[in-house]
Hints:
Order of helices and strands: EHEHEHEHEHH
Structural class: alpha/beta
Number of helices: 6
Bound molecules: 5-O-phosphono-beta-D-ribofuranose
Low-confidence stretches: none
Number of strands: 5
Radius of gyration: 17 Å
Strand content: 15-25%
Largest sheet: 5 strands, parallel
Oligomer: single chain
Strand order of the largest sheet: 2-1-3-4-5
Shape: globular
Amino acid sequence: MKKVAVIMGSDSDLPVVEKCLNQLKKLDIPYEAHIISAHRTPMLAHDFASNAKANGFGVIIAAAGKAAHLAGVLAAYTTLPVIGIPIKSSTMDGLDSLLSMVQMPSGIPVATVAIDGAQNAALLAAQMLALSDETLAGKLEAFKAEMEAGVIEKDRKLNESL
Ligand code: RP5
């Protein structure tokens, strides 16, 4: 299976990004996590994205906050799908990150999930990889069935207590 690259702009993004890493682990998806900043290490961002496909990655997930250009910059240098996680920043509740990430110019798509939507980024990456991996597709089916059963159980408990 191809690897997922999980890139964060700063170690301060890690508490949110951990939810993404945990979900990838649960699905047995191989990944690498790195701190690369579009602004503080632009050459590294260029080199990583340019070589990501040749280095065995199938999807790139990029988490960044504030002026969150990381996902867009990585997407500029690769044809791999890039998923962006806008991180909730201290001053604008993540709206700054969301808009920086989601408003990409035509030609360079970034699939942006919700503010701090790290688990969904992992699931979306998994769904992309599952297009060519039946075992992973089965795990995603099981995940959905488990979620459904969980909600039905909560409904049963709610109505028991009413
Ligand atoms: C962004 O700036 C990072 O992704 C992070 O969310 C934010 C703040 O970074 P630090 O100043 O905490 O390193 O580039």
